[in-house]
Design brief:
Elements lengths: L11 E2 L14 E4 L18 E6 L15 E7 L7 E4 L8 E2 L12 E12 L2 E5 L7 E8 L16
Antiparallel strand pairs: 1-5, 2-3, 2-9, 3-8, 4-7, 4-9, 5-6, 7-8
Bound molecules: S-adenosylmethionine.
């Protein structure tokens, strides 16, 4: 079952520190077909529905050259998540586990990461597939898929 904000059996919450150590600037907003967490996929698929990433000024110039990448990593702020759980019961079933042993949206810093397929760019808007977040989820960052930057594996034993 998808969590809204309730605690499930055997979950544990803490009192989070009453301070922030860094600031974020939302650089845009993600438009998806999902207005309820109950409808969102648990993870996006590269053949999932078309979604729009709308980048706001003054960051649109930072998109220059991005259209040449087939895959992007998208980081977003899961703004409707509670942030205080240290042990969670996975929504899909299974034993409760520590938050950092899960990809749950409920975490101290609710950052989501998705690998998406670039469909195309129209100015400040990227059309992509592969997201799993609510409509109007704030956008934190965009990066080309790291494979495009990874050094080739060394030759020799074990390096194919
Ligand atoms: N793909 C990302 C990752 O692995 O970091 C996020 C995975 S998380 C399991 C995806 C789920 O987060 C969705 O199924 C939905 O229940 C929830 N979710 C999506 N957008 C959200 C938002 N803006 N605020 C809170 N929860 C959200």
């Amino acid at each position: 079952m998808v969590r809204l904000n309730e605690l499930r059996p055997n979950e544990a919450a803490v009192d989070p520190p009453n301070r922030f150590d860094a600031g974020l600037t939302f650089i845009g907003v993600i438009r998806t077909p999902w207005s309820s967490r109950r409808d969102c996929p648990r993870q996006g698929r590269l053949d999932g529905p078309l979604c729009r990433i709308e980048v706001h000024e003054p960051w649109v110039a930072a998109l220059e050259g991005i259209e040449r990448f087939e895959r992007l990593e998208v980081l977003y702020w899961l703004h409707e998540s509670r942030r205080d759980l240290v042990r969670q019961a996975p929504g899909g079933g299974g034993d409760p586990r520590g938050t950092f042993a899960l990809r749950s949206p409920v975490r101290p810093n609710p950052i989501g990461l998705a690998l998406v397929a670039m469909v195309g760019r129209e100015g400040a808007v990227l059309n992509v597939r592969g997201l799993d977040c609510l409509d109007r989820t704030p956008l934190i960052d965009l990066k080309p898929d790291r494979c495009a930057f990874s050094p080739r594996a060394a030759g020799g034993a074990g390096g194919l």
